[in-house]
Design a protein that fits this description.
alpha/beta, 5-stranded mixed sheet, 11 strands, globular, disordered N terminus, DUF429, NUDIX hydrolase
Length: 271
Amino acid sequence: MTSDGSRGLVGVDGCKAGWIAVHRDPDSTPRNPGSTPRNPGASASVDIFPSFSALLDAMPASATVAVDMPIGLPDFSQKGGRGPEALVRPLLGNRQSSVFAIPSRAALYAQTDDFTTIEAWYAAHRRASEVAKASSDPPRGVSIQAFGIFAKIREIDALLIARPQLRGRIFESHPEVAFCRLNGDKAMALPKKIKGAVNPAGMAERKALLCRHGYDRDFLDRAPPRGAAADDFLDAAVMMLMAARIANGEARPFPDPPLSDRFGIPVAIWA
């Protein structure tokens, strides 16, 4: 895939308020014939959107979007995940625990209600785990971490089923795989979080890498928009660099070529 510089670049991560997007619009992108900008992180903007469809509506119609969210769901889950997860984990060394397996489509859709109490939330998690165990080999339940993003996975999944034309514009990536690829295929030395809390040293390591790839440090040091955490902001920022690599034909999918689910949605982690 190539770009003439006329396409927007969007990096996305889920956050408490919905979705955080670091983006660069075409009219702010210096054009080099046949390529994306040398420094796609320059002149970037950041915004919060309540839904993924609202995010897409606000971006250029031809924008390339890289998102930190699983895309393409299995009917039956094998050991290690859908396929992409097992391929990228060995790249990450001590960071590989950040890549977790996604259960079956049936487990993802086992509970779709809004939860008004914490008891209902935990009951829904147990139900999803039961369905996941029944549709996996070896039987495997659902982690709390994975269950927490089910609604966001379904949101993108529903869009890609209803609007197949989006499948050539929206790509799954993963922040730690992205940082690794930008770091000369070396995993980050420090964790981004320790016991659920942001690790300042790990954040500083990633900011320094993003700056080497064109971001302005003042942009990265700003407070994230309300409704997003500092690590959500950095993850969206590195996703935008992955969008540039994808648009410019520099990224590779894991696996190559991508798999596809029963709806024909591509299944791959791009970096």
